[in-house]
Design goal:
It is a single chain. By secondary structure, the protein is of the alpha/beta class. It folds into 2 domains: 241 residues, Rossmann fold (3-Layer(aba) Sandwich); 56 residues, no CATH class. 39% of the residues lie in helices and 21% in strands. Strands 1, 2, 3, 4, 5, 6, 7, 8 and 9 form a 9-stranded mixed sheet that branches. A hairpin with a 5-residue loop joins strand 7 and strand 8. 28% of the residues are buried.
């Protein structure tokens, strides 16, 4: 059996990112989609619960773990009855991302306190950002899987200014969604929503198209009152089978494979250092001697990249000595 399949029209759900400042109509736009199950992290959807007849289920949470569980539940519901769910809405992605980064920072602060350091000087470590990226990537893959099963995925995010230093001043050059780095690349449609005031003092909801894989709208096009109706004919007109996608499971398999093949070169520098000094007294003596000569105060907590590099060199040097482990 070939690994590849013949290309054909597929029934897909759209992945939509709605971004913008408060009060620009992001939630209203999201609620225009059919058969919605929603996660409300800001209790903003609560104001529309009695009005939105297409809102079939709602849960209030800011927990990334519960977001994960919710998408797994939605996926199971789609498997049992493909027509039971039309859209999955997250309002907002920003709160979930902030919750995750706050949790990572709290862990770093606890570590600092345990070592007698000032927690006010603590930042998220490279390893901490790695954990955040790992969780965010799995959640993005779950969204891709839901889309492949025909479910529209609507992510709502606050926006922030992108600035560049020109001369002595920082100038706004654009805007970006407040969410995991790289996440916007996964979406089919990205709309920057805003409110425009006319000459009569009346406000109008607008949306600038930043991306549209469906080709229904052009990039840069500004539309009035953006909603599901703009893309309804295109999305509902797609016929064919759904894609059997398990990207989230594939990511888990990749992690398991990497973990099973960990070797000394792949290990963290500090972990390799610990393993080396625990081999024998001879290894410990030789290693600590070189550490002292390199003037490294604490090899278990390198202060910068240069110290990490020095520790790597010490490890290689001691390993090359071929010391007797029984010594």
């Amino acid at each position: 059996m070939s690994f590849f399949r013949k290309p054909s029209t597929r029934k897909l759900g759209a992945k939509i990112l709605l971004m913008g400042p408060p009060g620009c109509g992001k939630t209203q736009c999201g609620l225009s989609f059919p058969k919605i199950y929603a996660l409300d992290s800001e209790t903003g959807i609560a104001f529309y619960e009695g009005e939105a007849e297409n809102l079939l289920g709602i849960a209030n949470t800011q927990d990334f773990n519960e977001l994960n569980e919710a998408m797994d539940e939605i996926s199971d519901m789609v498997k049992e009855d493909p027509s039971s769910i039309g859209s999955f809405m997250i309002d907002s992605e920003t709160k979930f991302y902030q919750n995750l980064t706050d949790a990572a920072l709290t862990l770093e602060e606890k570590k600092a306190r345990s070592k007698g350091k000032d927690e006010m000087d603590t930042n998220i470590s490279v390893r901490g950002w790695g954990r955040i990226k790992s969780v965010a990537t799995r959640l993005q893959n779950l969204k891709l899987d839901l889309s492949a099963k025909g479910v529209n995925v609507i992510s709502i995010a606050q926006s922030e200014d992108v600035k560049e230093k020109i001369g002595d001043n920082y100038i706004k050059v654009g805007e970006k969604p407040v969410m995991a780095k790289g996440a916007p690349f996964d979406y089919d449609i990205i709309i920057k929503l805003f409110v425009e005031k006319d000459t009569k003092g009346e406000f109008h909801y607008k949306g600038e198209i930043l991306k549209d894989r469906t080709k229904v709208c052009k990039v840069g096009q500004v539309i009035d009152n953006p909603s599901y109706l703009v893309w309804k004919d295109h999305l509902e007109g797609r016929k064919g089978e759904r894609i059997d996608s398990n990207l989230a499971d594939d990511a888990e398999k990749a992690i398991t494979t990497l973990e099973s093949k960990v070797n000394k070169e792949e290990m963290n520098t500090v972990d390799r250092f610990r393993e080396l000094v625990s081999k024998s007294d001879a290894h410990k003596e030789a290693t600590l001697k070189l550490v002292k000569e390199a003037k490294i105060a604490n090899p278990l907590s390198p202060k910068d990249a240069k110290e990490v590099q020095k520790i790597d060199e010490i490890i290689k040097e001691v390993e090359a000595l071929e010391l007797d482990k029984s010594a």
